[in-house]
Amino acid sequence: MFAKERRLEILSMLMNKKKVRVRELSDLFNVSEVIIRKDLKLLEEEGKLERTHGGAILRKEIPEDISLTTRMISNVEGKNRIVEKLYKLIERGEIIFLDSSSTNLMLAQKLAQFPKEVTIATNMLDIMKTLENVPGITLIGIGGTYHSLLGTFLGGIALDSVLGINSQKLFLGGAGIDIQRGNLSIFDSDEVQLKKAMIKMASKVYFVCEGEKFSHYGIYNFATLEDIDGLVTDMEMEPQITAKLEEHEIEII
Question: Cα–Cα distances in Å, from 114 out to 79, 87, 88, 117, 243?
């Protein structure tokens, strides 16, 4: 993982847990504590956190959109390649779940520019704003308790809404994928149940996976390789990864 991506994940963890420990981050990212301290120092200089003894806490006045903003500027070229592949997967008349992810937001922007006659169901507010009043697109907003740092609706109401929608396809985001253990994971525990519900209600599940997500993982598992039908990525697969995916009959796109 590049230093830039590692720092984005540290911010994501802070937004969920409110505090992090140097030793915990060192173990999670498999880098030295010296490197982690440098990351925290840089993020503090950028005004995004406050360092404490042995760790860091989230600044109270941190902008609410920082999580999405930082994700949107990370690996833009790779995300664009994935968006083109996702766009081609969408067929006329389908109902598509888009969960909360920066790549799915970029896909929504593509659909706003080049619409298809489809129904989009999403719990991400920025996707709703992007697709409102776009000709040919029927928009289903999945409501619930709004999490401003995530820019998404979660909770029991959102869960009930998802369980009432039959979808042809789900484009699923996540923090990482552990090929050996067969787990997909995220950093925010509040998203786990909603992702599981979307997986249950979709006929086909495509995991949206940038190359660096093969080298690191989140904290909470929300799915296994058995749950996904396809993996959409921006990189060439290593032979051992390809073999593992093919073992589970997962299409590589």
Answer: 17, 10, 12, 10, 35
* Alpha-carbon dihedral sign for residues 158, 148, 123, 220: negative
**CA distances in angstroms from 66 to 8, 46, 161, 219, 234, listed in the order given:** 10, 12, 27, 20, 24
Q: State the CB neighbour count (10 A cutoff) for residue 51.
A: 14
End-to-end CA distance of the chain: 22
Residue 59: predicted pLDDT: 73
- What's this model's pTM, rounded to 2 decimal places? 0.75
Where does the chain show beta strands of DSSP type E? 19-21, 49-52, 55-58, 95-98, 118-122, 137-141, 145-147, 152-154, 167-172, 176-178, 183-186, 202-209, 220-224, 230-233, 251-252
Domains of the chain, start order:
3-62 (1.10.10.10), 75-252 (3.40.50.10470)
CB within 8 Å of 58: residues ≥ 6 apart? 14, 15, 18, 19, 49, 50
The CA distance from 23 to 127, in Å, is 36
For residue 142, is pLDDT > 70?
yes
